[in-house]
Design goal:
Helices cover 50% and strands 7% of the residues. It is built from 31 helices and 12 strands. The longest helix has 24 residues, at 16-39. It has 750 residues and is an alpha/beta fold. The two termini are 57 Å apart.
């Protein structure tokens, strides 16, 4: 036994799948033991099983069972002292259960017996339409007695008559028919495991079905399951001590829940590509893996297309998938953060006003004027050590179709009045984010308020209001106006203007886009003033200071321009993210790949090179996926990953046509939108020519230009098969080479 225990510990260290099945096995044995205690009427074993079940109730968030089953268990533990006569009935005679038939091993819990009686009296041969109440309680036992006696008189109609001699009674599972059915079911399960895949293999992986943006890894799941009993026991003991022994906490107080990380948990089902349920996707992936081994050439041809014409890795439920872009900012902080107190003082500051509004909007205010005053005070504090303060906001235009594209999926909110005399709304943040008109009205009122406040200050203030640029006195800035859409890249124009008089500039913003864009423009900033120093302060309390020079030193000064394309390609507000490929993986490959900087910089300068340089860009993307032969193209890479331990279609890289459309959208954002930030009134090309399509006044992504129809479905051709087993005389099987799903079993001659 000791050797077996040590073997189990070693296997747990080596295999996450073993941890899962070991936990399932232990719980299965516990469940069977619990059923045994009821059927054999063993009261002491019943209490012991309940105590072992309690950790699962607490750790798996079954709040009602956790609360009241604990009370029930404590009552049963004390019943020997509080009610000794009842304890004798329970422990010696097993009267905590009911045996309706008298057969061995057939006792059941009281509630189950009540349910069976209710079923009998409401069934076809029982009473119909009976009242619920006193008449029901009085009549029910008598009606059931009459029904039982009547059925015993006619066993040929109602079934086998119950044997009166207890020695001749048998359990229903002791019959030959039951044993044959069990054996047949076992063989079917065994053959299914052998034909499809072995879930007990150490090479298998845990399929974590999750509808959140961050899917838990199999290591996290196995760790959760490994500590499930220990953590649950601790919570159960604390509950009993606090609420039932010391009564320090009221019994009715809410219970804390855990973040359940289990394979296939219903609250964490991942959203799959459009028109595919989770079960359908698992079946499709299993078939694709199977057929790819039998017919690799045909599979390779099919993998040039996207299933349902939608790239699974770029979508979530048929919609664009966007992961957290702040991960890139976290990576850059590690190499560029400097100490704010170490003499990094600048002469001018450019503030993205949205970061201050977002930080303060959760406060308690009675009037909007109080909120405006709080925003002004925070802005004045941030600009106290600077000679010039630029306050930049987004430019909300009604005809801004590209900006509307980024707001799709935020839901709807209600209109709010934002004049200083109006009451501060209760759901301010929710309505502000979801309604474009609210943002437009808010910033218009807020900028007007701040401009009035700045008119009495000696400090230089520059504020943006729609297309206008306001200044509290003449001669501060040469910027007359700007049609730039977002503060993220409108900031660049203000930095260039401030560099005419100042050398050190600080930008305050929490947006990753700002850090990337400012880094890409570092070369242009140095052209304006070679000795310039640019800092970006981020964080809720503006506690992190990023030195842009350090980022340039990390990625290489000649590669800073290509950073904008890397950011848009890996996912931003305007473009989709790649499932399972975070920002850190993209940045790591960009820094280590010597050719990537030259490629990305040349594409940003000349977007027309995309067609001729696409194979290099495709090679870079496949290197992020860590495939063996990225130079062979997307289809080969998809085929290679299909034979690995992937658990979802979203783990496959996009097909070549889908990647080309994504690259067009990424290049539009990086080259035309962001890199035109130095121009006050840029002229942008039509997004429809760069990977989008317009439908009902909205922009939609063009997923792929290689479309298949129902008549020309490569995936359907690949996996079609027949169920016949006639061998070489089969005339219905249309597959050119048989595979395991074909009933011909390799004998098909067609």
């Amino acid at each position: 036994m000791k050797e077996k225990s040590s073997l189990t510990e070693d296997q747990q260290l080596d295999s996450e799948m073993f941890v899962y099945w070991d936990c399932v096995l232990k719980f299965g044995v516990l469940f069977l033991t619990f059923k045994y205690s009821i059927r054999s009427r063993n009261f002491k074993l019943y209490i012991a099983c309940l105590e072992k079940i309690m950790p699962y109730m607490f750790q798996l968030n079954h709040t009602h069972y956790s609360r009241w089953l604990s009370v029930h268990l404590e009552d049963l533990k004390k019943i020997q002292i509080s009610h000794p006569d009842i304890y004798v009935e329970f422990s010696e005679h097993g009267n905590f259960t009911v045996s309706r038939t008298g057969r061995p091993f057939s006792s059941m819990a009281l509630d189950q017996a009540y349910e069976q009686l209710n079923k009998d009296i409401k069934s076809l041969h029982g009473a119909l339409g009976t009242d619920i109440g006193d008449r029901w309680n009085m009549a029910c036992p008598e009606v059931l007695r009459l029904l039982s006696e009547y059925e015993d008189c006619y066993p040929e109609i109602f079934g086998e008559k119950i044997e009166s001699d207890p020695t001749k009674l048998k359990h229903h599972s002791d019959r030959v028919g039951y044993q044959k059915t069990f054996l047949s079911d076992f063989r079917l399960l065994k053959s299914a495991i052998q034909e499809r895949f072995d879930p007990f293999s150490s090479h298998s992986s845990l399929v974590c079905l999750n509808n959140r943006q961050q899917v838990p890894s199999s290591k996290m799941v196995s760790l959760f399951m490994k500590n499930l009993v220990a953590d649950g026991t601790k919570r159960y003991e604390e509950y009993v001590m606090d609420r039932l022994v010391t009564c320090r906490v009221p019994l009715t107080d809410a219970l804390t829940t855990t973040n359940i990380l289990l394979p296939g948990h219903p609250e964490k089902l991942k959203i799959t590509p459009e028109h595919l349920s989770v079960v359908q996707e698992v079946k499709l992936l299993s078939k694709l893996k199977d057929v790819s081994q039998k017919r690799p050439t045909e599979t390779l041809e099919a993998l040039h297309y996207e299933y349902l014409n939608i790239p699974a890795c770029l979508t979530r439920g048929g919609e664009a998938y966007r992961s957290s872009k702040s991960k890139l900012l976290d990576c850059l902080k590690k190499v560029s953060t400097v100490d704010l107190t170490n003499g990094h003082h600048s002469e001018a500051v450019v503030i993205d006003l949205s970061c201050i509004v977002t930080a303060l909007c959760h406060g308690k205010y009675f009037k909007m004027a109080q909120f405006y005053k709080a925003v002004w005070d925070r802005t004045s504090l941030l600009g106290a050590a600077h000679s010039r303060v630029d306050i930049v906001t987004d430019n909300y235009k009604e005809d801004n179709i590209l900006k509307e594209f980024t707001r799709q999926g935020r839901g709807s909110g209600s209109m709010v009045n934002f004049t200083p005399e109006d009451k501060f709304p209760g759901k301010f943040a929710e309505n502000l984010m979801k309604v474009n008109e609210n943002k437009c009205e808010l910033y218009e009122q807020l900028i007007s308020f701040m401009f009035d406040q700045s008119s009495t200050c000696s400090k230089q203030f520059v504020l943006t209001k729609h297309d206008e640029v306001l200044q509290n006195r003449q001669g501060i800035t040469d910027i007359v106006g700007s049609s730039q859409l977002e503060a993220d890249y409108r900031i660049v124009l203000h930095i260039l203007d401030a560099l005419k008089k100042f050398e050190k500039i600080t930008v305050i913003s929490n947006d990753t886009d700002v850090v990337v864009i400012v880094t890409a423009f570092l070369g242009k900033f140095r052209e304006a003033r070679p000795s310039c120093k640019i800092y970006v302060i981020t964080g809720v309390n503006q506690s992190n200071c990023i030195d842009i020079d350090l980022i340039a030193g990390y990625v290489g000064m000649d590669r800073t321009l290509g950073l904008v394309l890397l950011h848009s390609l890996s996912g931003c507000d305007f473009t989709e993210s790649f499932y399972g490929r975070g920002k850190s993986a993209w940045l790591k490959e960009y820094v280590s790949n010597n050719e990537a900087g030259t490629l990305f910089s040349s594409l940003v300068k000349r977007p027309s090179l995309l067609m001729s340089e696409f194979s290099k860009l495709e090679n870079f993307v496949l290197r992020v996926y860590r495939v063996a032969y990225p130079e062979k193209g997307s289809a080969v890479a998809r085929l290679e990953l299909l034979s690995s331990n992937i658990t979802t279609l979203r783990s496959l890289p996009p097909s070549k046509p889908a990647l080309f459309q994504h690259a067009k959208r990424s290049l539009y954002v990086a080259s035309f939108l962001w890199m035109s930030a130095a121009e006050p009134y840029p002229v942008l090309p039509d997004p429809v020519d760069w990977g989008w399509k317009q439908k009902e006044g909205k922009l939609l992504s063009v997923w792929t230009n290689r479309i298949y129809t129902k008549e020309n479905d490569e995936f359907k051709k690949l996996m079609r098969s027949c169920s016949c087993r006639v061998g070489s005389s089969c005339t219905r099987c249309k597959c050119t080479v048989c595979w395991s799903q074909c009933g011909c079993k390799g004998d098909c001659s067609v």
